[in-house]
């Protein structure tokens, strides 16, 4: 069944790839960006995951280990960090919006590469990058640590929210101080992009990438001119997040070809079915997207990411004064248990983001967790750009 679907999709995907390479090649460059990042992560009391059997045990035991960690948190800090390489897909518009270099830095969720933001399948309907360029924004979509072509550090101690947030800080500083292109190794794309300095950086996240962005805003809010958190909502259902639905497996055993260089603690979604359950509402799902993800833009996640899903969520974000939009599928399963209407409290949100210039929660109709790959995505992007525009960005 899966084989049949993938065979029938192959020619389609190939055609889409060719046309989008033509369309985008003149204004995108692939970068390996050097970053130095250090953070205080948490030493978790967790068993190792070295097989699919261990991965199931880990999922089922997660609550128990979380409880242990909370009890021991004061002695659980661990200093981590070093030099890393971050793989970036960097695109600039032909005409900058408002004559300004406004850069959107996009952080993906678990189970993805940066390709989430610029799929070659149905780019006119799904690509956030393409839609943003048309509006005059530059975009840096990057593989977070432990995903795609970026560095693959220890999956327990390193792949956690604080270190990922420090990487986002380093990328932001490089964009603002003009070294994002000049300090990087180019691995493909346009040779005409040789230098870039952002005047404003807007931070855009999806899911775990939104959790990381939220942590970053709480500490380094002054580096951000605006933020869009997609696949994210602080509500009365988030604590019930059902990790079981991802059917987590051990990455190198699940897909030996793709994940041969992953080591202990690296996980992957267990199946296309599990990915669907976590990500989509049928009304806005093109089933070919599932195969496209499987073959082109899926990646690994770490045990440490699963254990830090709540890190910083609900912290008061006092130093961020830009506009903030929370853009979530009305039927997001991960954050809303399938129905976001009526489960969040705007007064509470204003308390958590006391100094934002503008706060908006937008529910994208009939859409699940992965708004970027759902039908009607581009209409949603216009809502996001309208919000930024209203706030002068
Ligand atoms: C880690 O915590 C220590 C003690 O609070 C602090 O001095 C240090 O600056 C922190 N390191 C980082 C990278 O945040
Ligand atoms: C891991 O392996 C993949 C697939 O072979 C490769 O593309 C990637 O560059 C490797 N990553 C690292 C950090 O070596
Ligand atoms: C730019 O920012 C990066 C990341 O913080 C830093 O490593 C680098 O030294 C800075 N370069 C300049 C020229 O300020
Ligand atoms: C917010 O900014 C103020 C002034 O720059 C600083 O003293 C404070 O530590 C910052 N708060 C956080 C949570 O970083
Ligand atoms: C598509 O998205 C836009 C923007 O959120 C929304 O106004 C419109 O109602 C959506 N269309 C459908 C059919 O849900």
Automatic annotation (TrEMBL):
Keywords, alphabetical: Signal
Record InterPro entries: AB_hydrolase_1, AB_hydrolase_fold
Top-level division of the source organism's lineage: Eukaryota
Domain AB hydrolase-1 residues, every copy: 108-373
Signal peptide range in chain numbering: 1-23
Name assigned to this protein: AB hydrolase-1 domain-containing protein
């Amino acid at each position: 069944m899966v084989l049949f679907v993938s065979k029938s999709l192959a020619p389609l995907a190939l055609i889409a790839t060719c046309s989008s390479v033509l369309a985008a090649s003149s204004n995108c460059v692939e970068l390996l960006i050097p970053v130095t990042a250090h953070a205080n992560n948490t030493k978790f009391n967790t068993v190792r995951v070295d097989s699919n059997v261990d991965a199931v045990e880990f999922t089922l035991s997660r609550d128990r280990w979380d409880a242990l960690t909370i009890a021991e948190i004061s002695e659980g800090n661990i200093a981590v960090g070093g030099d890393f390489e971050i793989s970036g897909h960097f695109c600039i518009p032909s005409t900058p919006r408002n004559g300004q270099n406004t850069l959107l830095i996009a952080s993906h969720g678990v189970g993805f590469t940066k390709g989430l933001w610029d799929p070659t399948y149905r780019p006119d309907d799904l690509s956030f990058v393409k839609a943003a360029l048309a509006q005059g924004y530059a975009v840096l979509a990057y593989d977070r640590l432990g995903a795609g072509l970026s560095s693959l550090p220890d999956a327990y101690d390193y792949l956690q929210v604080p270190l990922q947030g420090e990487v986002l800080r380093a990328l932001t500083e490089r964009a603002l101080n003009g070294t994002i292109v000049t300090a990087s190794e180019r691995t493909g794309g346009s040779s005409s992009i040789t230098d870039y300095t952002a005047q404003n950086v807007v931070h855009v996240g999806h899911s775990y990438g939104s959790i990381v962005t939220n942590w970053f805003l709480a500490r380094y809010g002054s580096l951000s001119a605006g933020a869009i958190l997609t696949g994210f909502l602080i509500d009365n259902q988030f604590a019930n997040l059902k990790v079981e639905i991802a059917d987590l497996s051990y990455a190198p055993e699940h897909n030996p070809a793709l994940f041969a260089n992953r080591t202990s603690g690296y996980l992957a979604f267990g199946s296309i079915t599990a990915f669907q359950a976590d990500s989509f509402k049928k009304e806005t799902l093109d089933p070919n997207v599932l195969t496209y993800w499987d073959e082109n833009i899926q990646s690994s996640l770490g045990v440490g990411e699963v254990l830090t899903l709540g890190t910083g969520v609900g912290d008061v974000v006092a130093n961020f004064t830009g506009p903030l939009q929370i853009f979530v599928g009305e039927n997001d399963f991960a954050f809303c248990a399938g129905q976001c209407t009526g489960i969040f409290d705007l007064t509470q949100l204003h308390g958590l983001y006391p100094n934002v210039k503008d706060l908006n929660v937008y529910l994208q109709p009939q859409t699940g967790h992965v708004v970027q790959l759902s039908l009607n995505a581009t209409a949603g992007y216009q809502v996001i750009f309208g919000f930024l525009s209203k706030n002068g960005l």
